[in-house]
Amino acid sequence: DLLAAEVNPIVGSRAGTTGGTFNYALGNLKVSSIDVPRHKVIVVCDKDDRVTVKVTDISASLNGFTWLYKQKGPPHLKD
Questions:
Q1: CA neighbor of 11 nearest in space, from 23, 28, 29
Q2: DSSP letter (8 states) at residue 73
Q3: How far apart are the first and last CA of the chain?
Q4: Residue 57 CB: number of other CB atoms within 10 A?
Q5: In angstroms, what CA-CA distances link 68 with 6, 7, 11, 28, 48?
Q6: Phi, psi (rounded to 5 degrees) for 75
Q7: Spatial distance between the Cα atoms of 3 and 60, rounded to a whole number of angstroms
Q8: What's the rounded mean pLDDT across residues 39-61?
Q9: How far lies 47's CA from each of 21, 42, 50, 54, 72, in Å?
Q10: For residue 63, is it left (φ>0), alpha (ψ between -120 and 50) or beta?
Q11: % the chain with pLDDT above 70
């Protein structure tokens, strides 16, 4: 079941527009629904009987998540 699948936390950093770097994290994602447009699904079976599925434009709705950020350098913003 895709809705019960565990989603790994998203963690990273990025340069701020006024200097310094922002560290951020997004976790505990609770997916409530997933929309896969049928016309965006491509299934290919090759000569070795391998099946490849490619899907684009997937969207998901979340029931909840946690997030945090912290700026390294002035003015030291954090949640």
A1: 23
A2: S
A3: 33
A4: 10
A5: 19, 17, 10, 12, 46
A6: -95, 20
A7: 10
A8: 94
A9: 49, 17, 7, 18, 53
A10: alpha
A11: 89
Tokens of 32: 């409530």
Cα separation, 52 vs 65, whole angstroms: 31
The rounded distance, in Å, linking the Cα atoms of 54 and 4 is 21
The DSSP line for 15-58 is E-TTSSEEEEEEEEEEEEEEE--GGGEEEEE-TTS-EEEEE-S-
| Token code pair at residue 38 | 């049928």
Tokens for 16, please give them: 């701020």
pTM score, two decimals? 0.55
Cis peptide before 37 (omega within 30 of 0): no
